[in-house]
Amino acid sequence: MMTEDVKANIKRHRPAALLGGLAGLLLVGGWFGYEIVMTPAQPTVASASTSEIISFIINPRGLGKLVDIEQAQFLDRWKERITKSDGKDEVRDALRSLTDDERKSFTEVIFKHLKRVFMDEATQFASLKTPAEKSEFCRKRVEEFSSQQAFMKDLAVVFKDDFPGPDKFQEWVLRHTSPSERQIGEPYVEALKRVASQIKKEARATTTAANG
After folding, report:
1. C-alpha closest to that of 171 among 186, 154, 155, 187
2. Spatial contact of 201 and 193, defined as CB atoms under 8 Å apart
């Protein structure tokens, strides 16, 4: 093909190429614009209302769009706010007011996070070298569970069959794991049970000694 023919061919197809590129830019720009408009702002846990926080959690473009570490940080800040304040009644009331679909969305997000935390802990437990290290690790976890147990029981009442409650949580996680995950999780659950039993025995012995 002669140079003049090539130039003529390029000139003839240039408008179509430009229009195609413009259409692509508009589509991409429209998608980004849609994402920006539809993505809710992340509430400040310390000052946001309980309903704002719960709305962010159940919004498909809210908490679930954050990376795992940011999700964990957000939920940990909220958990700390709940456990250190008198806002438990407010949280229970807000959760009771959710529709069935909203309640399902909330539990799915929370359980996904709790499972991830559990598996991270089970992996840490498996990496410990000595029985003493493993016992200390489990003791800290059991103490944390105990401090949250009352509120988790309240949530179990609110969510009924959708929430396993504090005593059944580890078993629930194991039922929702893959075989490879269960290989990591089951030894951790058994160790938690042994340590929890030991802590109860120690508490009974201390009570008996104090009364004797």
Report:
1. 186
2. no
